[in-house]
Amino acid sequence: MHLKHILLLLLLPLLAACAASGGGKPAAVASDEEQLSTRPIERWEHLIAKRPDQAWEYLSPGYRSTRDRSAYVQTMSNRPVSWLRAEYQSHTCERPGEFCAVVIKVHFRVRSRQLGVGDLESYNFLTERWIKSGGTWYHVPEEVTG
Predict the structure, then answer these.
(1) Are 75 and 85 in contact (CB under 8 A)?
(2) What is the mean pLDDT of residues 109-136?
(3) Secretion signal: which residues (predicted)?
(4) 90-117 mean pLDDT
(5) Quick check: 84 pLDDT over 50?
(6) Looking at the domain assignment, is residue 1 inside a domain?
């Protein structure tokens, strides 16, 4: 076998690895503004789609370390409300880069207990607490913040 054939055989796996990885720049970490407007909605989209196990990942590391994941999933799966959609409204930061309040408009449906009324649809504005840990923003549930 010629030397250039041997080199080609040795280089092919390396070239394939470069092609598979995209060969581009690493993805940039989203800014605080981007994360605060997208992560709360991503979390709500998981809840709306009945994927509380994935919404769990958006909870603060401190919350997750002191709570049982399966209990959270069960609690969030058995709510007497159907969430329909969530819309980011705004955020304010008492300590920018550390702690912010995010306002989300959540549309929902509930079954009325009144005979003949059926389902009721409405919306509510929720203010959620979010903290930054390790460059990523996480939700701190109200039961923790009071």
Answers:
(1) no
(2) 93
(3) 1-19
(4) 93
(5) yes
(6) no
